[in-house]
Amino acid sequence: MVLDGCFIIELFRKYAEEVTKESDDPIFSMSCMLQFLQHDLILLENQIPWLVLETLLEKTKPPSETKPTSETKPTSETKPPSETKSTSETKSLIELTLLFFATMFSSHPPLIKTDLFSGTDIKHILDLLRLSLVLPSKEIKNKSKTGWQPIRSITRLQEAGVKFVKVAPDSILDIKFTNGSLEIPSLLIQETTETILRNLIGYEQCLPGCPPIFTCYAKLLDNLIDTPNDIDILCKKEIYDNWLGPEDATQFFNKLYNDTYIKEFYYSKLCDDLNRHCKRWWPKWRAYYVQNYFTKPWAVAAQIYAVIMFVLTLWQTYIKKG
Hints:
Layout: H1 2-15, H2 26-29, H3 33-41, H4 50-59, E1 71-72, H5 93-100, E2 112-113, H6 125-134, H7 154-159, E3 163-167, E4 176-178, E5 181-185, E6 187-189, H8 191-206, H9 213-224, H10 228-236, E7 240-242, H11 246-254, H12 268-278, H13 281-293, H14 297-321
Parallel strand pairs: 3-5, 6-7
Antiparallel strand pairs: 1-2, 4-5
Helix pairs in contact: 1-4, 1-5, 8-9, 10-11
């Protein structure tokens, strides 16, 4: 455990440019090696107690290192490791970990705010990744006793007049329905996405008293994504960045929460609002009219021609009566 922990600490420090990397370091010189390490480090069976990692980080700190900052961002504020130089400023273990996994869910990761974890008992790396999405989420407060409500897929929701909007909240869990628009946070679908979500779901199912927010999230996505066309719609809206094939991504979402149990469903209000909206006739009629008569240039021209002819007919009738 100590040997594995020292490897993780050294890996995080090199990735953050706090330790100089050798030019022939196979981890940073071989393609996909970092992705393989991310995959292994998020497996539930590979977790090392957070206390061990923190102790190793403190024991291996040079005396000249300064105190960690409270907020960093892996963009312009904190540049990616390839664009930065090693400095005397050190980062906390929380910052090092979240920086290493910054592109796990999104190509444009949000700010890393260590203040969120103040007073929180972090158990291991997987628990930290879960807390980084649960703590800033507003959906965790929407627990309902009504249970799970089935909803329509993305394609059928679009036919019912629902619009899809890309948003950038602090958590991928915050899916909302407002004024006929389903607001969905961006999500990067890659090889490690299934691994991290499955292990987060497994962790929730095994930990006593743990809110099953990710299990609810997986069940919601399984309802929304039923066919490859659903994935294509979200990708065209630039909501999802799919690095897999449409068929593979669809199967991934459809099998994500198999053999799991949900006692409390956190998206029941969202499902109720969507089902209520789909029963209204006006949004459905308007969506049908727009999709069938305003999607092609010739159809638009035909509609304009029909309106002009109708106006001229009315004008001619008025002239004759006058």
